[in-house]
Amino acid sequence: MAEITNYPSLFTLTSKTAVVTGGSRGLGLHAASGLLHAGCSTLIITSRKADGCATAVRELQALHPAARILAIPADLSKLSEVERFVKAVDEATGGKVDVLVANAGATWGAPLESHPDEGFAKVMDLNVRSVFNLVKLMVPLLERAAAERGGDERSRVVTVGSVAGIVVGGTGVNGTYGYAASKAAVMHMTKHLAIELAPRRILCNAIAPGFFPSKMANGFISKSGGVEGLGKENPTGRLGKAEDIVGCVVFLCSNAASHVNGAIIPIDGGKHLAQSRL
């Protein structure tokens, strides 16, 4: 049997630089904290609201005083803001980023007949178009980081989809038509990026979370039976926790996933499988 000599380093991200969009709260904040716990020495987060970014930086810095943690507020639904954000990241990191977690997103729920075009457009712009523009513009920074580390090192992109893009969920009064379409789109786009960018030493994968208590999801959770009610419907008997996001994101960004590319990993306790049964 071949001896595994690098096991101690498989799940570490020591001295790496990470960028997390939508990193001031919810799943993005969980991911950001997990990357720091795994050893990232530099972390940059962004969201639209500067005060939310500042609060998150204070919280993360208190937990990880040795790390360099920055916030660059930006509205990534606008191309000009994506360009400004990437330029600022370039300057702050010396042009090298090891990990990009594209988490920024929005949802919109409304009946089909009254579902506004501006709501659909807002969700698609932030959840799909901005992710594409962000990855496209970050490629040079990701390439440089991998090249500088040498060997078989590769930079990582993790996009955040949803089980809503895998199975049919929100319809009726709270129909999330644009959200479901956007998450299906970003996950399929990630597969295309995986093929395009792997030869350039960048691996691309997606996570597809189910229900996690968060500001964006809490309203829908409340209308759908609450945390306890939805937990009972899950094969594992509960909803997602922060550790579930952290473990999967750290895995995908670590050497343990050095041959994982183009994967879509549901993080929902298997609920999407139970939901699809006839």
Produce the secondary structure layout:
Blueprint: E1 17-21, H1 26-37, E2 42-46, H2 50-63, E3 68-71, H3 79-93, E4 99-102, H4 117-149, E5 155-160, H5 177-197, E6 202-209, H6 215-223, H7 226-233, H8 242-253, E7 264-267, H9 271-275
Parallel strand pairs: 1-2, 1-4, 2-3, 4-5, 5-6, 6-7
Helix pairs in contact: 1-8, 3-4, 4-5
Which strand order spans the largest sheet, edge to edge or round the barrel? 3-2-1-4-5-6-7
Number of domains: 1
Question: Based on DSSP secondary structure assignment, what is the total number of beta strands?
Answer: 7
- CATH fold-level topology: Rossmann fold
What's the short story on this structure?
Pfam families: adh_short_C2. Keywords: NADP, Oxidoreductase. It is built from nine helices and seven strands; from the N terminus they run βαβαβαβαβαβαααβα.
Supply database-style keywords.
278 residues; alpha/beta; Rossmann fold; 7-stranded parallel sheet; 9 helices; NAD(P)-bd_dom_sf
Describe the structure.
- The protein is α/β, with parallel strands linked by helices and 278 residues long.
- It has one domain (12-275): 3-Layer(aba) Sandwich (Rossmann fold).
- The protein contains 9 helices and 7 strands, in the order E-H-E-H-E-H-E-H-E-H-E-H-H-H-E-H.
- A 7-stranded parallel β-sheet has the order 3-2-1-4-5-6-7, sandwiched between helices.
- It is globular and about 55 Å long.
- This is NAD(P)-binding protein.
- It comes from Morchella conica CCBAS932.
- GO terms for molecular function: oxidoreductase activity.
